[in-house]
DNA sequence: TTTAATGCAAACATTTTGCACCCTG
DNA sequence: CAGGGTGCAAAATGTTTGCATTAAA
């Protein structure tokens, strides 16, 4: 369970494991396909009767990203989305420009190629961001 | 010269070729390595003694992107950068997390792989966004 | 001269921050 | 009970828009 990794991170950084932090963490890890943004997490918690401020959601997301447990992704909108990092391997996203649907694909081979490209430039690679924009099966029919 | 493509786009869309639009266009196309953001274009023009409002810069960038002459890139900051599209082939960016330096690399092969991945999902691919974050040669020494 | 482009200021959307109060360890 | 966590409102950013004025065709 990833919750342990979260607790470990918190205690090793002298941060407290609060009810609010657990709720936010669970929203991101509960359904890996969701890629929620801050506002979506806020909306979902509100629907469950939990009132957590957007300020706290942003503060929590910021250190979850720093910790490496969560990663921030950009789908070409004016805000960020978030996804669990540790439970998945290297992957990119197929993002539909019409309906916004996001589908993941793994890219182990591509990542290897990118590392090689980095090496040739004496660049120390860290994170990879691979997004493909286009039209999903449904939207092509229209 | 890409300026002709710009003029053609303007006239075919009943838009006017103004001094201001030419200035903005030239900032993006003058040095392909720059990848300026809106504020950077504003700053550069101001340094040249040209006063162009940020509003006009954003308006112009928006239709340059729609036209396909310019593309919008995300370097993990909270704002967009812009680069000439038509003069370059498929490419990604090596972005230094320390100093912000951006180096381009071509990725024809990777793009072919991504198109194949899209095809397997019946996804009609359109644009590709490939960024590698890490540390440049200089910043690794520190 | 007609229609579109511009600058300005205000509006907007997203994210961050200061501060008084609250809760975990 | 000490020190971090939280909500709220205000501020900070980046970007868009309404409107009166200016300029291109």
Descriptive report:
Chain A has two domains: 2-84, Winged helix-like DNA-binding domain superfamily/Winged helix DNA-binding domain (Arc Repressor Mutant, subunit A, Orthogonal Bundle); 92-141, 2-Layer Sandwich (Dna Ligase, domain 1). In chain A, helix 3 (38-47) crosses helix 4 (54-67). Chain A starts with a helix and ends with a helix. The first copy, chain A, is α+β, with helices and mostly antiparallel strands and 142 residues long. The relative contact order of chain A is 0.13. Helix content of chain A is 46%, strand content 22%. The longest helix of chain A has 14 residues, at 54-67. The model of chain A has no long low-confidence stretch (mean pLDDT 94). Chains A and B meet through strand 3, helix 5 and strand 5 of A and strand 3, helix 5 and strand 5 of B. Chain A binds a DNA duplex (25 and 25 nucleotides) through residues 14-21, 37-39, 51-56, 58-59, 62, 78-80.
The figure for the number of domains of chain A is 2
Radius of gyration of chain A (CA) equals 17 Å
Distance between the termini of chain A: 42 Å
CATH topology of the largest domain in chain A: Arc Repressor Mutant, subunit A
The tally of helices of chain A reads 6
**Approximately how much helix is present in the residues of chain A?**
40-55%
SS-based structural class of chain A? Answer: alpha+beta
TL;DR of this structure?
The structure is a homodimer of 142-residue chains. Chain A is an alpha+beta fold and 142 residues long.
């Amino acid at each position: 369970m990833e919750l342990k990794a979260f607790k470990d991170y918190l205690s090793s950084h002298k941060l407290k494991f609060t009810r609010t932090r657990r709720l936010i963490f669970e929203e991101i890890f509960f359904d890996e396909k969701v890629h929620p943004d801050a506002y979506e997490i806020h909306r979902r918690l509100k629907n469950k009767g939990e009132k957590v401020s957007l300020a706290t959601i942003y503060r929590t997301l910021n250190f979850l990203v720093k910790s490496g447990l969560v990663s921030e992704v950009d789908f070409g909108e004016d805000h960020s989305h978030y996804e669990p990092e540790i439970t998945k391997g290297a992957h990119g996203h197929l993002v539909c420009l019409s309906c916004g649907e996001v589908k993941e694909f793994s890219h182990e081979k591509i990542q290897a190629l990118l590392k090689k490209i980095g090496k040739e430039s004496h660049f120390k690679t860290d994170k990879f961001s691979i997004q493909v924009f286009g039209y999903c099966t449904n939207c092509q029919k229209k």
